[in-house]
Design a protein that fits this description.
With about 190 residues, the protein is of the alpha+beta class. Helices cover about 40% and strands about 30% of the residues.
């Protein structure tokens, strides 16, 4: 056997949580942490109109909102070039979906989900000030889960966690999925 050495790269370990869509909707609802469930219920009472699209234009609009958020809130998000490339490479087995919410004529939030065969990953989300008051992202994520469950998808990865009690982690971990963390990234030398 040939041996090799490796050097750990200075990147944070990838952390995420996975929702098992083989569970019933009642089980998935029961699994939600109480604050998450209450936020979802509040959002469900807001008379928001939810739509779904794989349209390139809708993805581009979400990406514009998202990039404004990244700049304003000064966080490192998903590389927009990666998403643009994913749009170009869409096929029947690999597709992007935008779920967006409107209150009247005003768009108040949207999320982007990548579907690969029967597996999904939450990529990005955006909500307006008004959308945050409505807990719109709770409703959008729940609508995505129920939709893809109806399409017999199996695994829903909630995407990267940031750590240090970040609000995004609170949101994602509130679904009580199966947490995982990789062992880091290494360079073979």
């Amino acid at each position: 056997l040939k041996s090799f050495r490796s050097k750990r790269l200075k990147f944070s370990n990838w952390k995420s949580s996975v929702i098992d869509l083989n569970k019933s909707l009642d089980e998935l609802t029961f699994d939600l942490k109480p604050k998450w469930r209450n936020s979802l219920r509040k959002a469900q009472k807001q008379n928001l109109i939810i739509s779904r699209s794989s349209n390139k234009k809708d993805i581009e609009i979400l990406l514009q909102y998202y990039l404004q958020d990244v700049k304003k809130k000064k966080f490192k998000g998903v590389n927009p070039e990666l998403i643009k490339k994913m749009v170009q490479l869409q096929s029947d087995s690999e597709k992007l979906y935008v779920f967006k919410a409107k209150k009247g004529d005003l768009e108040v939030g949207s999320i982007l989900i990548s579907k690969q065969f029967k597996n999904l990953i939450y990529l990005i989300g955006w909500s307006s000030e008004e959308g945050r008051k409505f807990n719109v992202n709770y409703l959008l994520l729940w609508e995505a889960i129920t939709y893809f469950k109806s399409k017999e998808c199996k695994i829903f990865d909630l995407g990267g966690l940031i750590g240090n009690n970040h609000p995004i982690d609170f949101f994602k971990l509130g679904m009580n999925g199966n947490y995982y963390e990789n062992s880091g990234e290494y360079l073979v030398i």
